[in-house]
Amino acid sequence: MSAAALPAAETSPANASRGILLMLLLPGLIALVITFLLPLIWLLRASFASSTMGALSGGDWTVQSYSTVLFDPFYWRVAWNTLVLGFNVAIFAVILSYPIALFLARTESRFRGVLTALAVAPLLTSSVVRTYGWMVILGDRGVINSTLQSLSLTGGVIRLTNNSLGATVALIEILMPYAILAMLSGFGRLNTQLEEAAAMLGANRLRVFTRIILPLSAPGVLTAALLVFVLAISSFVTPRLMGGGRVFVLGTEVFNEATVTLNWPLAAALSVMLLILFSSIILLYQRALRALET
Amino acid sequence: MTTCMENRISGNGISRILLRAGAAVAGMLALLGTAQAQDASTKGTVNIVGFSGVFADNYQKFIIDPFKAKYPGIDVTYQQSKNSAETLALLTLQRADPKIDIALIDVAVAIKASKDGIFAKLDPAKVKVLDEMPAWARLDGDKAVAFSQDNLAILYNTDTVKQPPTSWNDLTDPKYKGKIAAKLGDTRGVILLPILDKLAGADYKQSIDPALALLKKIAPNVSTWEPAPDCYAVIQSGEVDLSICWNGRAQYLHDTQGGKIGVAAPKEGSIGQTNTIGLVENSKNAAAAQLFINYALGTEAQAAFAEKSFYGPVNTKVNLADAVAARIYGSKEAQAAQMSLDWNFVAEKYSTWIQRINREVIALN
């Protein structure tokens, strides 16, 4: 076999396998196009429609909705609120979930499976139900307030809900199972032998944690933070119900424009803004992940 | 329906006689007027989309069922929709090939939909009852007609509030601090503004600034602007003392759930959330549908529905019993002060007003 023929002989099976690969991917791709890409294109189109509700009827193109959003300081404040809510929820959810995830990842208990299932069990109930649970706990006549009052620790009612505090607290708890799951799957590189080696070389437990465990678990932590952040800034039920109408975030505004004032193009433009926020955060995340890996 | 009727006939001799007599009278009337004969022979199906829950039950029982009894050739289906926005989405999607003939929809949404060509103009020759409707109820050139008004009222918990409020001004009373639920970022707010304007001696067509100033005095008392699950449950659970919400549902809950919820109809009068009925453009059953609209707007259907649902009727020929009127509009003083809005004007302002409530009152409180 000549040297020139060799690459050709190599590429043809490669081509065939690529063809098979494409064929195998096709059903998934079609499903993605129908369920994900088409609605997204429709959303984009709707955001450029002119009539306040004729987004479905086609018609002319205009950037009016975008100029409304971009030149109105109220929407900038809403976007800022959304980011702040997202960051707060992501940071606290990760801090609270980290020890749980670390324990679940390292434990050799025979109940490990049960414990993991317990940690993510809240996902089995709807977040609406859990939001109502938090309303019972944090309400003016809720568990915390009535306990404090019956112990005479406080004079009046402490406002724990119907504001952004309530929304943040409830979102943290509601999104913690996602953080735990993301961290568990990201903790694959943790290795007890490395920790033992460090300990043998004289590192104390804090040093082992900061020099070995934390760096190795960082990708998982970052993924968890990203997931929680994205879920938090796109959430709308919890901020709406726990915020008592006072928490204005992009999710609640999209809902309002779409269902109350029926300005669908504006709702679509706000959704696109939210998407842009998502994408920039995901880009940042990928940068950070690459930096961690090198 | 037919089986129910048959049971009644076989079970009760007197009603059988009455029914026969009724049928005989109806038969004679049919002979007298060819129009009626045509009506009775109209066949087809009328597909309605409208509000869900208790409204749907009442509408079926007190309007659709009697209509079907009167026009056996016409079948009526009722599809429930969560809210008017969803109904509008449905109608917009079906625009090329409508499966819905009649939509029951909130007035502000109806005007928007009508401007977008969703509804057809009603034919006054077919919907004769239009003559009995007041001018404000015939919207956008008879493309949607108001059929009921559910008053905005102050609801209170009968256990915790011993002296129910009598005036909208009572909402500013500091004793209710943190005790009021008020979902105002929708039609409720849009209706409350003209009421508060009137209290402040202003006119909503000129400016809503006085109303917003008054609302800002109520705001410190508001515990939640987003009562969950709704503005009635928070009263019943004792979470708040007062709630600004609709009369009809509250009256129903008062009767069915032990009177825990009370309705205070303020003496300055109120305005109703107005529901409209509209014929869908390009409806395939336009003749039968207009027959239905004519019936639904008629005095018989209007009075029955008002009595059972506590939604104020719109037809000017309807006379309500005093007791019913009191539960719909409140005291005689409140009845005299009852207002109606120029909805064509308000529909234009709808989103601006909500935006101002959201930004100038709710976001700052």
TrEMBL record, chain A:
GO CC term, one of those recorded: plasma membrane
Entry's localization field: Cell membrane
Domain of life: Bacteria
Membrane topology type: Multi-pass membrane protein
Main location: membrane
Signal peptide per UniProt: none
Annotated transmembrane regions: 20-44, 78-105, 117-137, 165-187, 208-233, 264-285
ABC transmembrane type-1 domain span: 79-285
Gene3D superfamilies membership: MetI-like
Gene Ontology terms describing biological process: transmembrane transport
UniProt KW keywords: Cell membrane, Membrane, Plasmid, Transmembrane, Transmembrane helix, Transport
Family: Belongs to the binding-protein-dependent transport system permease family. CysTW subfamily.
Protein name: ABC-type spermidine/putrescine transport system, permease component I
Automatic annotation (TrEMBL), chain B:
Gene3D superfamilies assigned: Periplasmic binding protein-like II
Keywords: Periplasm, Plasmid, Signal
Keyword Signal included in the entry's annotation: yes
InterPro entries hit by this protein: SBP, Sperm_putr-bd
This protein's record includes keyword tRNA-binding: no
Record GO terms (molecular function): polyamine binding; thiamine binding; thiamine pyrophosphate binding
Gene Ontology cellular-component terms listed: outer membrane-bounded periplasmic space
Signal sequence, start to end: 1-37
Gene Ontology biological process: polyamine transport; thiamine transport
Pfam family name, one: SBP_bac_8
Official protein name in the record: ABC opine/polyamine transporter, periplasmic binding protein
Organism name: Neorhizobium galegae bv. officinalis bv. officinalis str. HAMBI 1141
